[in-house]
Design goal:
Layout (H helix, E strand, L loop, with lengths): L12 E4 L23 E5 L32 H13 L4 E5 L9 H9 L10 E6 L4 H11 L3 E5 L5 H8 L5 H14 L5 E6 L8 H8 L5 E6 L17 H9 L4 E3 L10 E5 L12 E5 L12 E4 L4 E3 L6 E4 L1 H5 L4 H13 L5 H4 L17 H4 L2
Parallel strand pairs: 1-13, 2-3, 2-11, 3-4, 4-5, 5-6, 6-7, 7-10
Antiparallel strand pairs: 8-9, 9-10, 11-12, 12-13
Helix pairs in contact: 1-2, 1-9, 2-3, 3-5
The protein binds S-adenosylmethionine and iron/sulfur cluster (SF4) (2 copies).
Length: 378
């Protein structure tokens, strides 16, 4: 087998976020160079994780010597909330907390309470969700709900215990994640979504067992194409199982009907289980496929990502962020922070997935310089 070369570079290069000469007022009407609004903010609250999924934080790289961020580098909850308020003033309606493993961040409920108090430009509460590996969810679900979290997405790559333990690479049992999902449902954090990253040859035989398990439970299972994010996972196209193939395999057992997207900029293509008349059987539920590799959805991508140490990334595949922490800690006013965010978004032209097929292998954001998903969040 060819030796796998893992580039060991620090991807955390940031541009200083400049204050524009002409202020960009927060009107909620911000658009980037392709006319895309800003609606969705993903906040990474830690770069650490208790799992070592090989497609995200492979053990060989994320070992005991890995230089995780020191505590002082992390944004405090007050700093996160202050920045989030400016993003919301520019039109953000949905906030997703992620990481690393967000439930490892101490007192995360306190941050959720602060974010839940924010209001959109229309005066409505934000949609606040969290993506977790589920390992600590059984313990924390009730407190998260009480703090104002509305929903959770749980990552789960298979039901077979041996397959799951291999994929998380820390020997974590599947039963505890299933307990976490049940606890989230009981706590009112539903509808729970379950994300399964599909790697051909590793867990694609788990597609049907997962569908059988979650069908009719109210939990929405979504299949994600294995992506070439970061610089360390040794991604190969032949390990990607296209969503079209996932749908074909499901259709061998179940009749499916396409459903409308639930919101503009929605990443998942939705399919409903059909009844005998070919209509969506609502009680059987739905599944989703996220085709980040085979079907680009950059055209209406309205997502910004805030890294653990306060850098804004405009694309999952970006190699550079814009440092807001320096402004924040340098005493910038709320207006100045909003202006900097507005200016950064107005300059955005990223559409990596759309260009992926047409790019020379090493153009755009070279894999060796791309930022890790565990750092900016999924
Ligand atoms: N630790 C949490 C979790 O696993 O849910 C949150 C962070 S994780 C980076 C967010 C999501 O990114 C997870 O659903 C994970 O499966 C997905 N992910 C990570 N690396 C990926 C890759 N190379 N391709 C596709 N999805 C990936
Ligand atoms: Fe951790 Fe989530 Fe990455 Fe897995 S996907 S290593 S659980 S951050
Ligand atoms: Fe958005 Fe970048 Fe993904 Fe395209 S590749 S959908 S711009 S995050």
């Amino acid at each position: 087998m060819a030796e796998r070369v893992i580039p060991l570079v620090d991807q955390r290069h940031a541009l200083a976020a400049a204050l524009p000469t002409r202020p960009v007022a927060a009107t909620g009407l911000l658009a980037d160079t392709l006319g895309r609004p800003l609606r969705d903010l993903r906040i990474s609250v830690t770069d650490r994780c208790n799992f070592r999924c090989s497609y995200c934080m492979p053990k060989e790289v994320f070992d005991k010597d890995y230089p995780y961020l020191p505590h002082a580098s992390l944004l405090t909850f007050e700093e996160i909330t202050r920045l989030a308020r400016q993003f919301v003033a520019h039109g953000v309606q949905k906030i997703r907390l992620t990481g690393g493993e967000p439930l490892l961040r101490k007192n995360i409920e306190v941050l959720i309470e602060q974010l839940a108090a924010l209001r959109t430009v229309d005066g409505t509460p934000l949609d606040i969700t969290l993506t977790t590996n589920g390992s600590l969810l059984a313990r924390k679900a009730r407190a998260l709900r009480a703090a104002g979290l509305q929903r959770v997405t749980v990552s789960l790559d298979g039901l077979d215990d041996a397959v799951f333990r291999r994929m998380n690479d820390v020997d974590f049992p599947v039963a505890e994640v299933l307990e976490g999902i049940a606890a989230a449902r009981e706590a009112g954090l539903g509808p729970v979504k379950v994300n399964m990253v599909v790697k051909r040859g590793t867990n694609d035989h788990e597609i049907l067992p997962m569908a059988r398990h979650f069908r009719g439970t109210g939990t929405v299972l979504r299949f994600i194409e294995y992506m070439d994010v970061g610089a360390t996972n040794g991604w190969r196209m032949d390990e990607v199982l296209p969503s079209a193939e996932v749908i074909r395999r499901l259709q061998a057992e179940y009749a499916l009907v396409p459903l409308e997207p639930s919101a503009p900029g929605e990443t998942a293509e939705r399919w409903g289980y059909a009844d005998a008349n070919g209509q969506h059987a609502a009680q059987a539920g739905e599944i989703g496929v996220i085709s980040s590799v085979t079907q680009a959805f950059c055209g209406d991508c309205n997502r910004a990502r805030l890294s653990t140490e306060g850098q804004v990334y405009l694309c999952l595949f970006a190699s550079q962020g814009h440092d807001l922490r320096a402004l924040l800690r340098g005493g910038a006013s709320d207006e100045a922070l909003a202006s900097a965010i507005g200016h950064i978004w107005q300059g955005r032209s990223d559409r990596y997935s759309q260009l992926r097929g047409t790019l020379a292998p090493d153009s755009a954001a070279p894999a060796g310089r791309r930022v890790e998903m565990s750092y900016i969040g999924g």
